[in-house]
Amino acid sequence: MIYDLIVIGGGPAGYLAAERAGQAGLNVICFEKSSVGGVCLNEGCIPTKTMLYSAKLYDGVANGERYGITSTGLSIDHGKVLARKNKVVRMLVSGVKTALKSSNVVLVEAEAVITEKNHQGYIVSANGSAYTGKRVLIATGSSPAIPPVPGISQGLEAGFVITSKEALNIAVPPGKLVVIGGGIIGLEMAAYYNSIGTDVTVIEMLDHIGGENDIDLVKILQKNYEKKGIKFYLSSKVTEIGNDEVVFEKDGQSQKVSADKVLLSVGRRPNISGIGIENINILTERGAIITDEKMQTNQPGVYAAGDVTGKSMLAHTAYREAEVAVNNMLGKKDVMQYTAIPSVIYTNPELASVGETEATARAKGMDIDTVKISMRYSGRYLAENEGGDGMAKLILDRESKTVLGAQVLANYSSEFIVACGTFIERGLTVDEIKKIVFPHPTVSEIIRDAIFQY
After folding, report:
1. Does residue 285 have a pLDDT over 90?
2. Residues labelled catalytic
3. Does the reported pTM lie above 0.70?
4. Which end of the chain is more exposed for a tag (fewer CB within 10 A), N or C?
5. Does residue 338 lie within any of the structural domains?
6. Which residue range is the domain that position 125 belongs to?
């Protein structure tokens, strides 16, 4: 049998591409060697948000006196949090499998390797059988990056050093947790364990947390979590991991901090090894598969989507890349754009961002104006955040008066940052945005308030 499409990888890019292709009438087979749903559903996006929501509820009640609520004997049951997380994951994994089945996709839970190309198409081997496909979509995702720091390998083997995968399944919360890396994953895990009582320290090589997020907002976020007890060491490089401690260098001085567990969170690398791309001469760059705007590789009929492309390692990016790839397979004109991909750090408060930051815009030589506005201008925010110090920031093109970027530090910001992305994608001017009616009272009104301050 010759399949119209072979999908290698059952994560967000893989399973959605398989669904879309199957719904369009293509004969599709999808291979997944580990867990259907990929890292996002099993080890990332969904389980972390489930746990963080429990922490958010706990924090809310713990600080209830600000809102006239008195609680006594309050506690959080980490075991029950994990049990609920596992239940949510099982339900969603089941949903993905059902969606694939209803889309007439053949799902094979096995490791697949591209072995060759012949006159019939591409040959993929799995479980000792060979499968032929006219097209192939590579969606093998990514894995945690492991830096060459002395002691890390031994720490991983001993279970003293963990990745985000293990951090989601620790039966007994550590007394002291050191997080190496202050990016999105590191901060979310730091936030959860801080909320449930763990002594958390974050060590970050950059002079700020939050990766490429706006400096003005991440400074406020850091201040919030310092008040909650997290210790941050910035501009610091980990030099060694020993027994029950992490050694790092800051300002030319060697320091150390003790730990019960060390969470390694310094980024991810595309999974390109062991899948046979060398057998059909797929081009790569910096450890990622090269694709064009149609998500095509250098080989005809071979596409790639998701983290394996190394372009934007986010599940929602993977979804869109998958759709672009399938649309082009079906002969529909579609191209991938990365101008307005939203990003969210699901801490408490959330930090949502889309488009340019002030730093990236200035680095590109853009002529910009910025608007910064306190979240206290929002009635809904003020009603629900006693003592909150959130902020919204817009980056605007000075000449065209269009939005180039937006960043919001406030709960619910993940739910409305897409509106700012739409402004960017559609090139709406300030005058056009002013005519849009926002519901009142909502936190999203802060965008309207910012626009009218410009």
Report:
1. yes
2. 440
3. yes
4. N
5. no
6. 2-143+269-329
